[in-house]
Request: fold
Amino acid sequence: MNLAIWLERAAAVSGGAPALCHGDAVVADYRGFADRAAPFAAALRERGVTPGDRVAVFAKNHPDYLVVMFGVWIAGAAAVPINAKLHAKEAAWIIGDAGAVLGVVTAELGAALAAEVQVPLVEIGGAEFIEMTSGAGMGSVPREPDDLCWLFYTSGTTGRPKGVRITHGMLMATSLAYPVDVDPVSAADAALYAAPMSHGAGIYAPIHVRVGAAHIVPRSGGFDADEVLALARGHGQVSMFMAPTMVRRLTDAAKAAGRRGEGIKTVVYGGGPMYLADIVEAVDWFGPRFVQIYGQGECPMAITALSRDEVADRSHPRWRERLGSVGRAQSVVEVAIGGPDGVLGPGETGEIMVKGLPVMPGYWRNEAATAKTLRDGWLMTGDVGRLDADGYLTLADRSKDVIISGGTNIYPREVEEVLMQHTGVHEVSVVGRPSAEWGEDVVAFVVASGAVDQRALDAFCLENIARFKRPKSYMFVDALPKNNYGKVLKTELRKRLAEG
Reply:
């Protein structure tokens, strides 16, 4: 079944209900939403896009993001949403690897991307896009559960991102688990997109389309705490996905303004470690509005969940321990802890393993990575954790070296690969440093081979990788600490940062 059928059904049943909102303004009801997505699909077919083809979306959050996504699905094609924070060169690599036949962009991102790719680009809001979303539409092309729906690129420790094949069946399983395991959803609700629609926030769009809920994109196109508070107060019944650092900033802004989160129904948080003190403070201020989820691109948003009652509970004798966990397995998956000799028991620490309907069938054109990650039907997450006797999963660590800044994974090897291209760098090692604002900051330890300073390295990074990946600090050292095998001891570098 094609996931786009949910839009067709919502338009038939709730055609006059508000669907797409830009800030406070309703820009389309469900009938209007469908009447723009279906012509966009037909226009894609006229331009030679066939079922199974990939269409890239390199755009900032915008109400028409959903028109594009559902239009791509109606046509039977697969969407390739690309993080809008990426450098144009990085986006171009993804477009090439995915074999995308067309790109949809917002103006400011498209200008830079045009110089890097050969595929045609269509600008959201431009004359061609307006023409493509007008006129006669088409019905959704039949799709099977295993057909590609969303090609999600996640950074890899090798320095190149890997394409996670998210199928129609996977996304349906994740969507239908949401009202069971995360939060009930109804037509009276509104989904607010303050986090990137190319990631987890966008994953939750289909279930809200299914029930005919509204979709709100802030005018800023991103996260502004004061704007979010104002929009929630104006719309009411608002749900949204946030990284832990966003929750911290929302709490700070609400306290400063004397607001208690009027209009906020639910904040689903995940994508990085949430400090216990921060979520306790958030619940104390806003009340029981928070739900935690744990997932990754390979099993999108659907590994575990900690319910709003569990997040808010202070009566259970082990409430702190449970609040420090990421909850229990969602309905559509099994979760286990793996060790060298098989599955481990309660309380034992090992690699988190997952199997179930939302687990990917494999990476895009990367058999070696697929074979390493999918073993005997289990997804090896690369994360380390433990399960207690009641089924609560606690993360002991993320993948060994990953830096999580603002809820986004940054892999040190990717930054190191760029810095090593600079003629003034002899050796480099990148690690994370705890940050109250972002969770972690990127720090580079550099052994220079010539005259080079922080300003030059910063400019070099900005030419080659996304701004959010570049180091916040550069530490110039005479040598990097290494073991007897010549491997850099990142634990020693982190220790140096901790000791100041």
